[in-house]
Design goal:
binds uridine-5'-diphosphate; 18% strand; binds nicotinamide-adenine-dinucleotide; 3-stranded mixed beta sheet; 11 helices; single chain; 7-stranded parallel beta sheet; globular; alpha/beta
Length: 336
């Protein structure tokens, strides 16, 4: 079985490539390195002990993508490629809609022209918007997204759902990720953000390594146990393993399914700081600042559907997530 992984050089993609290779799949990676480095591909090969095909191509390039499908026999696609920074999406909405939605439309068109109708898509908890109360369930209403990034995920879910309605030969899995953190146990691959990190864990690890002075905690007056925002952090390897289960399902038949990939447990910002300090033995300077616009108090999943239907459950706890994030950061202080 040969799986095309778009965005396979990125954070979640690289961890998923390793699990795919470990599970015996052949992979074909496509990436344009907009937000990743070639070195991550070397490390996937090193860690898995396997070689794989790679194409440097933008998924919006229909001709380039068509060539890949003609050269390789692709059985299914795991589609990670996209832009993901919430703040940047407010400054560059056109680029976000173009890359995320345009890229997905081109990909789907090339797929169907080449007779490949199986796709696993990286969606996000952000599609639940701000009106639902956690634990979030797949049956809850989506929409009400608060930034262009989130809206692209919401719109792509609608596009893929309409595609399925028009042609039930498709097999589509929409995976709503909660907050991926952590890294591969080896410390050889991990999250390598460009510039100042937007997300909590890479910011914490950069403070701990001395690249940044102080973590700004965005608000301590939320209606949560300690006043700071609560999220469902999930180890990126658990997330990667969730993709293997979703892939097995799309390979096995047709249909459209939606799954939350989270742990079901919420931790506050200060819980994460404390867990990180314990795991790393390093103190993290922080100060409380104003709330970040668009943030909600609490967001965590009900992950029971993925357990019932895919037999998947996150196994790695917050300590392991922190230990692995720290191993990656301390062994690669400047990323790849
Ligand atoms: P990432 O930026 O590390 O990986 C995305 C990869 O896609 C990068 O390697 C980038 O170079 C590539 N890419 C972007 N646009 C491309 C294009 N047009 N053509 C080819 N390659 C392109 O991000 P990630 O954290 O690994 O996220 C993967 C997916 O999961 C994204 O779609 C993201 O929106 C989604 N997601 C991420 C999170 C998170 O917190 N990391 C949460 C929910 C959903
Ligand atoms: N956060 C913070 N300081 C930072 C980055 C994030 O206090 O520098 C908080 C943020 O307000 C939220 C949580 O950490 O409550 C997770 O934020 P992140 O951006 O990692 O993910 P999100 O849930 O917003 O997608």
């Amino acid at each position: 079985m040969s799986i095309l992984v778009t965005g396979g050089a990125g954070y979640i993609g690289s961890h998923t490539c390793i699990e795919l290779l470990n599970a015996g799949y052949e992979i074909v990676v496509v990436d344009n390195f907009y937000n990743s480095k070639k070195e991550s591909l070397n490390r996937i090969a090193e860690l898995s002990g396997k070689q794989f095909a790679f194409y440097e191509c933008d998924i919006r390039d229909a001709e380039g993508m068509d060539k890949i499908f003609k050269n390789e026999k692709i059985d299914a696609v795991i589609h990670f490629a996209g832009l993901k920074a919430v703040g940047e999406s407010c400054q560059k909405p056109v680029e976000y809609y173009d890359n995320n939605i345009g890229g997905t439309l081109t990909l789907c068109d090339v797929m169907r022209k080449n007779g490949c109708k199986k796709i696993v898509f990286s969606s996000s908890a952000t599609v639940y918007g701000s009106n639902n109360i956690s634990p979030l369930k797949e049956t809850m209403q989506t929409g009400g997204t608060t930034n262009p990034y989130g809206t692209t995920k919401y719109m792509i879910e609608i596009i893929l759902s309409d595609l399925f309605k028009s042609d039930e030969e498709w097999a589509i899995s929409l995976l709503r990720y909660f907050n991926p953190i952590g890294a591969h146990k080896s410390g050889r691959i991990g999250e390598d953000p460009n510039g100042i990190p937007n997300n909590l864990m890479p910011f914490i690890t950069q403070v701990a390594i001395g690249k940044r002075e102080c973590l700004s905690v965005f608000g301590d007056d939320y209606d949560t146990p300690d006043g700071t925002g609560v999220r469902d952090y999930i180890h990126v390897v658990d997330l990667a393993l969730g993709h293997i289960k979703a892939l097995e399902k799309v390979l096995g038949g047709t249909g459209l399914d939606i799954y939350n990939l989270g742990t079901g447990t919420g931790y506050s910002v200060l819980d994460v700081v404390k867990a990180f300090e314990k795991a790393s033995g390093v103190k993290v300077n922080y100060k409380i600042v104003d709330r970040r616009p668009g943030d909600i108090a609490t967001c965590y999943s009900d992950p029971s559907k993925a357990l019932e239907e895919l037999g998947w459950k996150a196994e790695r706890g917050i300590e392991e997530m922190c230990e692995d994030s720290w191993r990656w950061q301390s062994q690669n202080p400047n990323g790849y």
